[in-house]
User: Fold tRNA N6-adenosine threonylcarbamoyltransferase from Oerskovia merdavium.
Amino acid sequence: LGAPLVLGIESSCDETGVALVRGRELLVDAVASSMDEHARYGGIIPEVASRAHLEAMIPTIQRALGEADVDLSQIDAIAVTAGPGLVGPLTIGASAAKALSIGLNKPLYGVNHVIGHAAVDELVHGEFPEHVMALVVSGGHSSLLLVDDIATDVTELGSTLDDAAGEAFDKVGRLLGLPYPGGPHVDRLAREGDPTAIRFPRGLTARKDQEKHAYDFSFSGLKTAVARWVEARVDSGLEVPLNDVAASFAEAVADVLTAKTIAACQRHGVETLVVGGGFSANSQLRDMAAKRCAEAGIDLRIPPIRYCTDNGAMIAALGSAVVRAGVAPSGLDIPVDSSMP
Ligand code: KG4
Ligand code: ZN
Assistant:
């Protein structure tokens, strides 16, 4: 007891997530996903996702309360993803959170989804040290955050200029004829291949780009390079070595992500790196980050995968930090912002 009990609601993409956090303790994390409905379209359909959130929201809230044996009246504050994300899905979560805030007469906090991906690690590995670097990588985002205080002082050092890391994997998966979402399939193939077989380009690493985009990422050129390479093989009547293509592509993505992240840690004197977002399941990234962090003397923290994919715990964790920091609640008129920085 002591710390306020915060209910967190996440609905920015295809997961309806509801969780309860007290301080840095997670009481329950309930998630409903509409991914199965999107898989047959080969991508997230916002309207389908919105409807799924609408149907799942109240049952998921009820499930979370039931599993934690908590009554609505015990909740001290409500946190909700205000952005970035899909505007329809965000609106469903925000409307539910506003209704609870009004009904229970408890404060509402709109929080940032990407920062939530970093915040959730405090529930797993404990309070952050003074400076933390966070690499948030998923199908929707690839961002490098300097976290001086998770509730009040987060600076985005860089982000992707085009595709997110998971999105690039999904596109390469489609190119290689793999089911959607392709990321995990490409990962599996890559583990059987030779990462040095093909030298694919590393985006934004040339000297002129380093000046302007030292901590930004770009994966769209890489994806095109993979497509060209595969086409050339097919045109020449040669077999496409799927394992080697996957491994060389995955190597290029992991190389750029880890090299830029570690350079940022060194530049900012940061000794702790948190990796979050659904793409942190990627084996090539995990292996390379572990190796390079060990070499650089950086403490690497990656939450278990269920807390890396979208969930309510990340929003409740960030909400709890914001409440504890004494930040003023959001007004009930708080808008959702699909492109929130
Ligand atoms: O966080 P998440 O569940 O949803 C988004 O907010 O995007 O991230 C899922 C993304 C998808 O693009 C998926 O293909 C990719 O992460 N992904 C992977 C792996 N597991 C998930 N990509 C590569 N290797 C994996 N093992
Ligand atoms: Zn996410």
